[in-house]
Amino acid sequence: MTTSSTPSRTSSAQGPAQARSPKSRFRWRVIDIVTAAVLGVATGLIFIVWNSVGYAWFTVMDAFTPGVGGIAVGIWLLGGVLGGLIIRKPGAALFVEVLAASVSMLLGSQWSIETVYSGIAQGLGAELIFLLFFYKRFGLGVAMLAGAGAAVAAWTLELFLSANIEKGPEFLTIYLVSIVLSGAVLAGVVGWLLTRALAATGALNRFAAGRSSKRIG
């Protein structure tokens, strides 16, 4: 009787724990919040540099062919991709991108409060991609899709925020293709490589991103 009842108690004890595991996987820890905040501030500082360099590149490219300047936008989409790849929790992509945009605004972004509006849209675009994969897949392909998703969201916002809707279908098509390619590469690929580089240093050992990177390596 004792022998047969032991597995039953063990099974009943494991059942609730297994049932709780999906919730615990999505629950934010203190270290998640701190790391997301650090990522947001660091990315915001990158944005500050890119506000000058990237915008100059955007202007030059757009002077040759209107819309091609979108190829420079990808770096401004980096926060959402990094947040999603490293934290791997619902809301991480949005949190990091919006915080980065806020830092950029507070440190003198030439677009003022519109910077934050863009951060919200771009963060939501990246967040939607991670959500579509149920926060379970974080490979290079998903990173590129997240960058592209952030780009589509940015393009959509600018239809109204920057009055791009008045510029005609040719401009809008060229700009959409350019910004999506930029998001996939400069946010997606670069974000994935940065995550791998951080994992290699051991900085992400307390995150699934760090453990999975070691298994792949």
TrEMBL record:
Region: Disordered, residue numbers: 1-21
Transmembrane segments: 30-58, 64-87, 94-113, 119-135, 142-161, 173-194
Entry keywords, A to Z: Membrane, Transmembrane, Transmembrane helix
Protein name in the entry: Uncharacterized protein
Keyword Magnesium: no
Keyword Nucleotidyltransferase: no
A Pfam family it matches: ABC_cobalt
Originating organism: Pseudoclavibacter terrae
Feature: compositional bias, Low complexity: 1-12
